[in-house]
Amino acid sequence: MIRKANVQDVNAIKDIIEPYAKKEIMLPRPLSELYESIRNFYVCEEDGEIIGCCAMQVSWQDMAEVLSLAVKPDYTRQGIGSILLDACLNDAKELRVNTVFTLTYAVPFFEKKGFNVVDKQTLPHKIWSGCIKCPKFPNCDEVAMVRKL
After folding, report:
1. 21 φ/ψ sector (left φ>0, alpha ψ -120 to 50, else beta)
2. If 0-12 CB within 10 Å is exposed, 13-18 middle and 19+ buried, where does residue 128 land?
């Protein structure tokens, strides 16, 4: 079941994101940041267990970012990430956001979902605020991808 996250889900979201962050394929998210942004998150819950998460954060008048898309390893390749991403894209459409972007290593996944690779320099400077927290800053090797809605 896909649903909006609530504050009781924060620890589970952190537990899902953390292994990916340790591998440096996703930004770590401290608990304080997760609580502050909980309204941006969707979760996938199965039998009372949170097994996936994804957030959509509005970053400008006509632009939003998809971030923290993660699924527990035992549940990958079952379409959960796609369903979570779709929930975020639908949310963006409801908010009348025209463009959604992501910074990712999962290029094939996002290409299948209609995203296109773009030069990072084409994205507004406002979106780089999270990059300062990244251990790879300023040598980012993530790929910028955009989808028009």
Report:
1. alpha
2. middle
Cα separation, 96 vs 140, whole angstroms: 30
Q: % helix / strand / coil in the chain, to the nearest 5?
A: 40, 30, 30
Do 127 and 59 form a contact (C-beta atoms < 8 A)?
yes
Residue 3 has pLDDT above 80, yes or no: yes
Residues 35-56: tens digit of each pLDDT: 999 999 999 999 999 999 999 9
Q: Count of alpha carbons within 13 Å of 107, Cβ hemisphere only?
A: 8
* pTM of the predicted model as reported, rounded to 2 decimal places: 0.90
- The H or E element spanning position 145 is strand 143-148
Question: What is the maximum alpha-carbon separation in the chain?
Answer: 43
3-state SS track over 34-81: HHHCHHHEEEEEECCEEEEEEEEEEEECCEEEEEEEEECHHHCCCCHH
DSSP string, 105-118: S-HHHHHHTT-EEE
C-alpha–C-alpha distance, residues 87 and 41, integer Å: 10
